[in-house]
Amino acid sequence: MLSPAVTRKLIAHVAEAGVDVRRERARAQLAGLSEREREVAVALGRGRSNAEIGAELFMSVATVKAHVSRLLVKLELNNRVQVALLVHDAGWTG
What we know:
By secondary structure, the chain is mostly helical.
C-alpha cells in the first residue's frame, strides 16, 4: 500500500503524456459505475484511506472495503492505486 502523498506524486508523474486519449479511455471504463461507486472511486483518486472515505461518505470501513473490492472486480483492476490512476485520468479528482 502506498501513502496518499506517494500516490499523488505517482499520479502527477504519469499524468504528463497523452491526457486527452487517456481521459476518454478512463471515462469509458468508469461509465458503468453507480453513483456510490463513483463517489468511492473519486475518494480513492484523492488518496483517501478507507477510514477517511467512510467518514467522508458516512459509511462503515467494512462497507468502504466492500465497495473497493467491487470496484476492483468491475473495473478489472488489481489494486486501489490503479483505481486512483484511472479516476485521475478521467479528470474526476478536481
